[in-house]
Amino acid sequence: MSGGTVGSASAGVVEDRVIPPGQYWGRVLARGQVLRIVDLEGKQAVDFLCYNAANPEERYNAADTMKYAKTIFVTKGHGIYSDMGRRLLTIVEDTCGRHDTIGGCCSAESNEVRYGVKNTPSCRASFRRALADFGLGPKDIVTNLNFFMNVPVEADGTMGIVDGLSKPGDYVDLRAEMDVLAVISNCPQTHNPCNGFKPTPIRVIVTEPAARERPAG
After folding, report:
1. Residue 172 has what DSSP assignment?
2. 16, exposed or middle or buried, with CB in 10 Å at 0-12, 13-18, 19+?
3. How crowded is residue 8: how many other Cβ atoms within 10 Å of its Cβ?
4. CA distance linking residue 83 with residue 150, whole number of Å
5. Comparing C-alpha atoms, which of 98, 140, 122 is closest to residue 192?
6. Mean pLDDT, the chain, as a whole number?
7. Are 182 and 29 in contact (CB under 8 A)?
8. Which of 51, 90, 114, 165 is most buried (CB neighbours < 10 A)?
């Protein structure tokens, strides 16, 4: 493992890969493994979905995740919950502190409605390709979590996608609390500031935890 800005590994590295903008990644994380997502250049939105690997009909639920955390801005210590009220992942480290739970993913259709442009690359298209590798399809795409994306909500309910707060090298660590299918779209959006209008690469690192870091039970 290299690169001082992303911290040091506490255990063996299972996978270490750079994901270009507009590309996707997916993997089954064994219970206890830790997924680190690194924003290499800063201000890059990372769209994320997760499922119970043994039964993908159980998947990330945005509403329950927010309700249990009592906030729309999840960070270190918060769980990422399924629609059955079970914790899929725990955020065990977070150097950014601002992620989005309400904005969802971009799609060619929403880009056309919002920006008047047709046939754009999108996170929904990337999710479809990533999920196809695991026998899943469009109906399995739910409202997702967006790491490093900044969607503030004003007192009157106004929301907007604004410049991200992540700096080069910021990362989030997610520990699997069961065997979890994790899927990432490295967002290609250029029509709003979620990527600083210039999508950039990210890095994903999967590690085996030290024995003391394994989930109990």
Report:
1. E
2. middle
3. 8
4. 24
5. 122
6. 93
7. yes
8. 51
Gyration radius of the chain's alpha carbons:
16
DSSP letter at 169? T
C-alpha to C-alpha distance for 212 and 158, rounded to whole angstroms? 44
Strand boundaries in 6-129, DSSP class E: 13-19, 24-29, 34-39, 46-52, 79-81, 87-94
Contact of 166 with 42, CB cutoff 8 Å: yes
Task: Please name which of 53, 54, 88, 92 lies closest in space to residue 207, comparing C-alpha atoms.
Answer: 92
- Could you tell me the pTM of the whole model? 0.91
Stretch (H or E) spanning 180 = strand 180-186
pLDDT tens figures, 10-58: 459 999 999 999 999 999 999 999 999 999 999 999 999 999 999 999 9
Q: Rounded distance, CA 211 to CA 189, Å?
A: 40
Token code pair at residue 125? 């298209």
Can you give the residue ranges of every domain in the chain? Answer: 11-210
Look at residue 9 and tell me whether its pLDDT is greater than 90: no
Specify the amino acid at residue 156: D
| The pLDDT value given to residue 213 | 54
Using CA atoms, how far apart are residues 2 and 8, in angstroms rounded to an integer? 8
pLDDT tens-digit readout, 153-186: 999 999 999 999 999 999 999 999 999 999 999 9
